[in-house]
Design brief:
Blueprint: H1 9-28, H2 34-50, H3 61-84, H4 104-123, H5 126-137, H6 142-149, H7 153-173
């Protein structure tokens, strides 16, 4: 890809017109939806335009803008992962939350199970914890999460299966495993 290294506004506009679709395809391969791809691309182009004075011309304008876009994508996933990693007993979903009028022992057992489960999730390696949260809490497809992590889907499935088994064993060993 050859482009001008001029940093004037019109040259940048010409660059955007020429490479917009290519950049959109690039970011589209990295994120889940077209809307998110467009949002990230627009934000990156705004950042690039406002930072044109920082462009030294050591590389082509396209390489520099691609770097800005790549950083924008990384920041998006870093921020998304931080939000997903905040797991506690009050927000962790459960299909079998006991009714308010349940026996105190049932409520205590459920609270202990949730507390221990949150502890188990917190002890997982960050990459696995993030993937588990994306699949289990956000409902993202294995293939999408695997692509984000740049690993084969089968590898992700195996890693998450092992993590779930470790958590199940840890819950059983703590005496708060499922009783059903």
């Amino acid at each position: 890809m050859t482009d001008t290294t001029s940093t004037s506004g019109p040259a940048f506009e010409q660059f955007v017109e020429r490479y917009y679709q290519w950049l959109l395809r690039f970011v589209g391969r990295k994120v889940a939806t077209r809307e998110l791809a467009e949002d990230l691309l627009h934000d990156a182009l705004l950042d690039a335009y406002s930072g044109l004075t920082q462009f030294r011309g050591d590389a082509t304008l396209s390489a520099w803008v691609l770097g800005v876009l790549s950083n924008k994508i990384r920041r998006h996933y870093r921020n998304q992962t931080k939000a997903l990693l905040t797991v506690d007993a009050e927000t962790f979903p459960s299909d079998d939350i006991p009714a308010e009028n349940a026996e105190p022992s049932t409520l205590l057992s459920q609270a202990q199970r949730m507390e221990r489960l949150c502890h188990c999730v917190d002890t997982l390696p960050q990459k696995i914890r993030s993937a588990l949260c994306q699949v289990a809490l956000e409902g993202d497809a294995y293939a999408l999460v695997a692509r984000r992590l740049n690993i084969p889907t089968g590898t992700l499935r195996s890693q998450l299966s092992r993590a779930r088994e470790q958590m199940r064993v840890a819950l059983e060993n703590a005496g708060v495993g499922r009783t059903d």
